[in-house]
Design brief:
With 338 residues, the chain is of the alpha/beta class. The protein has 13 helices and 10 strands. It folds into 2 domains: 240 residues, Luciferase-like domain (TIM Barrel), CATH 3.20.20.30; 77 residues, no CATH class.
Length: 338
């Protein structure tokens, strides 16, 4: 079975085009851009900038949250980006765990996500779909949007049995996974797995500042997720009680959702650093953090489950260096677009 293609996942920022150009130079397959408006810049502005600022690398919304935008807004945004870089865009949709939690809301219902994806697909196809009780259709004349149908692949980020059932029901063009699937996914048209971590350099250990700054932001999201789903379990996780104490002190109860995901996947808060220091060598077990041989082994294992694309969610103060090191670790053949 072929090894997965190598892509990168990043939050929108002022440097997104610089990072995308670095990824393009290194042979990464695609740049996926996150969608959490309370934490990062705007998804579609970032994708348009990448479209204009690069020549050939693919890029994707990874993942767009339906409840944040009217279906027509998303369809029009897809059309605008397709106009800038035809055929290079993929749009994946998810229920918005982090994006909605930062707004004090739970993730979307899968049934609502399915309705939204169908509406967007119909709009891009040039059809009429009912939205909020009224017929809607893309009315853009020639020169204001590409001719319909617009064939941008639409993916879903399934989570659990309901998510996979929804993706199958929709007949999506691909799935974006937030964790290893635990089953063979080679039967899907396309699949991508988000991974995190850093390449461990010679002489580094769990106390090395570079390693902590690079692997720490995504390692800390473990505390974020446990708090949201099983807060009482934090006391059983190394560093968890320390992280919880820092969170409780940060905001009053009615504003606590504003603090949980601070720095999510980007930078470390003081409570993150304290918890990571207490976790000790645990940071070395997070994601794909390891020496090049270990990362190559992870890549092989992902390929064996049918994963067609691995999305390296690089973090830390030196993203280009992370992209260089990861591309070197997986090898030139694996990092080249095929």
């Amino acid at each position: 079975m072929a090894e997965p293609l190598i892509s990168v996942g990043l939050p929108p920022s002022s440097r997104i085009v610089d990072y995308a150009r670095t990824a393009e130079r290194l042979g990464y397959h695609r740049v996926w851009v996150f969608d959490s408006p309370a934490l990062y810049g705007d998804l579609w502005v970032a994708l348009a900038r990448i479209a204009e600022g690069t020549e050939r690398i693919g890029f994707g919304a990874g993942v767009a949250v339906p409840s944040l935008r009217h279906p027509m807004v998303t369809a029009s945004a897809i059309a605008s980006v397709e106009e800038l870089a035809p055929g290079r865009l993929v749009t994946a949709f998810g229920t918005g765990f982090t994006a909605r939690r930062t707004l004090g809301q739970k993730g979307m219902r899968w049934a609502d996500l399915a309705t939204y994806v169908r509406q967007v697909r119909t709009l891009l196809d040039g059809g009429v779909t009912e939205i909020d009780g009224q017929p809607c259709q893309m009315l853009h004349p020639p020169g204001w949007a590409p001719e319909r149908p617009i064939r941008t692949p639409l993916w879903v980020a399934p989570g659990g049995p309901k998510g996979f059932a929804t993706a199958r029901e929709l007949g999506v063009d691909g799935i974006a996974l937030m964790m290893p699937p635990g089953e063979d996914v080679s039967g899907w048209p396309a699949s991508a797995l988000l991974i995190n971590g850093t390449v461990v350099r010679p002489g580094e250990d769990h106390t090395s500042p570079r390693l902590v700054d690079a692997a720490g932001p995504w390692f800390a999201t473990m505390f974020h997720g446990i708090w949201e789903l099983f807060p009482d379990a934090l006391d059983g996780v190394p560093g968890g009680a320390t992280w919880r104490a820092g969170l409780l002190a940060a905001r009053p109860e009615n504003e606590r959702h504003l603090a949980v995901h601070e720095g999510h996947g980007m930078v470390l808060t003081d409570r993150d650093r304290a918890a990571i220091a207490e976790a000790g060598e645990g940071i070395l077990t997070g994601g794909w953090t390891g020496e090049p041989a270990a990362i190559r082994n992870h890549l092989r294992e992902a390929g064996e489950t049918g994963i067609g694309e691995v999305i390296f969610t690089a973090s830390g103060p030196d993203i280009p260096d992370e992209l260089e090191a990861f591309a070197a670790a997986v090898g030139a053949d694996a990092s080249s677009a095929r």
